[in-house]
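Quick review question:
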């Protein structure tokens, strides 16, 4: 009986945290209030080649024009799969032309490139996360938090960009 009570209490706490976390989506660029998670994740019928129970169709990296030397990371590929302006799921970016990255990534901030903190103009160690097999690559997720966990609502940034704070996390000027 104690195990049952403990399990129920644990489920209640997790449920409360999930409901509080979902409230952060309200009025954000990812406000899917009717089904917040289903916009990206689906429990049944997901693409089994992609982790995270991905609900959409992945864009092939071969369909993208990337920066020289870049190789798009998995997290950014998920982002571009909706923000390419062609394959969005539900009501995401094509309804808001300001959120379309397109398939030519050379006119956007580079992703899938190695961050070199020793290079001139860059900070040695940024506070935003880096990705890739060596945790040294810039990704869409380096600057954006799609789950809005950091509390910065729009446009789902990890930290505020007031006075270029987000940019200055990596760049000297």
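Suggested answer, residue by residue:
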């Amino acid at each position: 009986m104690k195990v049952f009570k403990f399990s129920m209490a644990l489920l209640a706490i997790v449920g409360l945290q999930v409901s509080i976390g979902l409230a952060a989506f309200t009025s954000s660029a990812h406000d899917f209030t009717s089904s917040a998670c289903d916009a990206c994740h689906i429990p049944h019928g997901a693409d089994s080649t992609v982790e995270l129970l991905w609900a959409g169709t992945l864009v092939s990296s071969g369909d993208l024009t990337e920066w020289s030397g870049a190789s798009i990371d998995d997290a950014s590929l998920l982002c571009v799969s909706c923000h390419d302006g062609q394959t969005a799921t539900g009501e995401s970016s094509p309804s808001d032309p300001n959120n379309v990255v397109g398939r030519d990534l050379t006119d956007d901030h580079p992703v899938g490139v190695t961050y070199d903190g020793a290079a001139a103009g860059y900070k040695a160690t940024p506070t935003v996360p880096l990705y890739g097999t060596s945790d040294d690559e810039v990704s869409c997720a380096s600057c954006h938090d799609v789950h809005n966990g950091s509390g910065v609502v729009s446009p789902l940034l990890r930290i505020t960009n007031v006075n270029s704070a987000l940019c200055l996390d990596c760049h000297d000027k």
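Why it works: Residues 2-23 form the longest helix (22 residues). Confidence is low (pLDDT under 50) at residues 1-22, 89-96.
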